[in-house]
Amino acid sequence: MGEEEVEVKMTGENIGGVILEKINELLGDNKKLVGCGFDGAAALSSKNVGAAAVLKRASPLCEYFHCAMHALNLCAAAGCKQRDVQNCMTTVKTVTSFFNMSAKRVDALKRKVREKEPEQPRKRLVTLCETRFLERHDSIIVFCELLPAVIMCLEEMQSWHSSDTHSRAAQLLGSLRSPSFLVALFALEVVSAALLPVSRALQAKSIDVATAAQGLDACIETLQRWRDEPEEQVANILIRADAVADDLGVTIAPPRCPARATHRANAGNCGDRASYYRVNCFLPLLSGTLEQMRARFGQNQQVSLKLCGLLPAQLKPWTEVEAVILRYRQFLDNEEVVKAEHSIWLSMWKDAEEERPGCAVAALEKCPQQLLPNISVLLQILAALPVSTAEPERFFSRVNLAATAIRASMSEERLEAICLLQVYRRCPDLTVETVLQEFSKKPRKKTFVL
């Protein structure tokens, strides 16, 4: 066998082929695939040669869904194109690394936090990592909360004997004294506070596309409202920036505005400071984030989300859901039968006094399968559409803990069993007696000392 034939290539075609083999092994049929979710890597998401393309060719209804968790993180990253915001994030990373890389500095910061804000539960900074989705937002929020203590600690460190510490502390303190940094920091806090709950919800163990879409729509609506009426948010940002600026002995004021600027944000006449920072910092940050969210979570990318029109909380007439329903006609009865069931489903919830379910699983529990089999199938499809890859990634983390060097030669079945035991530690069926009974069925006998 030649070298080319034994080499394992991690191409999209090969990955897709392995996935199809596993699906056929478990289900015996791949024609019922309705969606596949990946994190956006080219080998997986490519429309021509990616794993998603392989699955699409095998099952035409298998649409590719970009992981919503990764997409939201990309929105937060791509939305921060304004220079002051980028410089602010770089400074936050540098200050956080400066403290966290030394146990002595961490202890000094904890003492200042207890002295300055004794009721503050957070005592150390969170590393700003662009690939850790919750920490990305949490880092900004915690940095804003601990900023007064950070300033006091850096001022004290300027008198330390360590040459590296006192010189770096002076440099970082100079960066924190910049008015543009303070305004950009608290503007980032406002946006991060809006994105953090959605990012946390998208990593939940049980979430369907309907719930995810509702959370994303609410977040977009909130950011758009701030974009249309930014005065209140800008005023709050300046109030918080002024409070920190007083401790630093600086004044929050717009920079000198020449008639023409090419290397700094300068949108028109500066006016007062609120107008300057609103036009040159806050609005560009909101606009960039909104633009990215609408592009990555639009209906054009996820046509199947129109199935949400079958949910009792947002029922739509037949004309609005007909196209997406007929898309899955191979799983359904005659079109007239499906249309009749849709009318019955609307009538059932027209005057219903109970709370209307807003997610696919809850709606499926309320749907009588014997009466409305086609509606039940459509709700099952909606519940099965992938939202994020958070659960597989959590499993991969478990695998890394379980697949140690000692266990490197164990079978896949045993590895999966160990990972499941790590997750479900309180399984009622897992007792000493059941484990011994399982071992007694094996030809290899062992002596156990209990």
UniProtKB/TrEMBL annotation:
InterPro entries: IFN-induced_PKR_regulator, RNaseH-like_sf. This is Repressor of the inhibitor of the protein kinase.
